[in-house]
Amino acid sequence: MLSLGQVFGTGAAIVLGAVGLVATANAQETGDIGKYEYRVSCAVCHGDDGKGGGSLMKYYNKQAADLTALQKNNVGVFPFDRVYAVIDAREALPAHGPRDMPVWGDVFSQRMQGATFGFGTPKDLESYTRGQIIALIGYIYTLQSK
Length: 146
What we know:
Layout: H1 4-8, H2 10-28, H3 33-41, H4 43-46, H5 80-88, H6 104-115, H7 122-142
């Protein structure tokens, strides 16, 4: 199978660069991609402060997790792997019970696929998805109560 670069040469780099510019332009309003992603994807449930009081929660029976206490509730260690798995959620984790939030791994991957008009390779899609999740986790880490 040919890669995006082999098929389109520098055109592929331009498309992927444009995707990066859009993400960068959106992130400029907040200062970083993780914070921007949190505001557009997470704050409606978890609240701007991360404590679980987002505007949509009045429509749900279950309270959103308090993201400011993740480290405190894990004996002072930020649970990076657990947070990554919960956000990504493309791999079912039956022991964790039913999902109460979107499968953001799929959302981020589909976003990249749409931005590249379906020409992104699986590796490109996965790299973008991982980058978005890691940036988001980086921002969630800043929300931890001291």
